[in-house]
Transcription factor MYB62-like
Amino acid sequence: MSSSRKSSTNSSEDDAKQLRRGPWTLEEDSILIHYIALHGEGLWNLLAKRAGLKRTGKSCRLRWLNYLKPDIKRGNLTLQEQFLILELHSKWGNRWSKIAQHLPGRTDNEIKNYWRTRVQKQARYLKIDANSTAFRNVIRCLWMPRLLQKMEGSSTSSSIMTSENSPVLRSLDLTSQHQALMTVQKVPGQGPGNLSEAVQCLDQKEQNSDSCVSSSESMNNISKISQFAEYQTSPFRMFDNNDYNMLAMDSYYVDNFNNSSCYNMEIINQASTSALGDFAKPVGDCHMAENNWVNDGFADGLWSVGELWELRS
DNA sequence: AAGATCGTCAACCGCCATTAA
DNA sequence: ATTAATGGCGGTTGACGATCT
């Protein structure tokens, strides 16, 4: 090995030894901010050297883009932002950077974290692949309408997100779209619509059309959903009658998807069977799943049990 | 009160595409 | 045409605070 090469190797080793890793200190942040204020961003390796930061260029770039940049928005994602993430993810998949471009002030990292910690969690508890058609349908037919409903309820200026300008909701088949819309539609003089109203409207529509679903089946849907309403007060009540084959939430998905023409029923049935399979076990075996479905899913601002299933009025 | 577990999020890693030399 | 440097992206990890047992 030549001496020059040796020297070069030692030098890079020294550099590597000197490089700092882990959380950034206030001082480092300050140095980076001031340097960029004076010289602008870019050429990150050079920037790191000239600023005297013992960090890689990549690390500096990441710190700036994800944390220090002045227009970074901090705090919880708004309902509108959550809706947008769900919608854009359904279009583009894990293209976090592309999705982030449509949420000013939000970083791809933040969106990715949101997806992994909040959204994928639901998929795990349902034992559905988060990238599966079945889970996408859960998001489109339940989660997104629910967000719309909450947006409608919480703000008078949620104009950016209506079912009319939402491509994803528009892409739903008529029945599912109807269901989604009814869920969020206000009944004049009666405040926000609720799920039972939504289902009733759905039934009416089905009766008026040449739907193959009988009214008794529709009533069955309501009955099943009502059973889920019981579930809200006691996560384990569903299982009190040893009726382990019925979880209203899953039934709701399946029954409504059965009425739909655009879904791959095999996939959905597989998914729901899988989910049911777990729920169908004795309580002791599936404590975690139930507990988390209720507590986590409904507690994160998207699935508020009391608000979502306003069935026992 | 203390240890275990869980959830969040900042940071890192590795791969790929682009660009400049 | 080749190669090295750089930037960008998505996946993963690990620290840390919160909650549970």
Remarks:
- The radius of gyration of chain A is 25 Å.
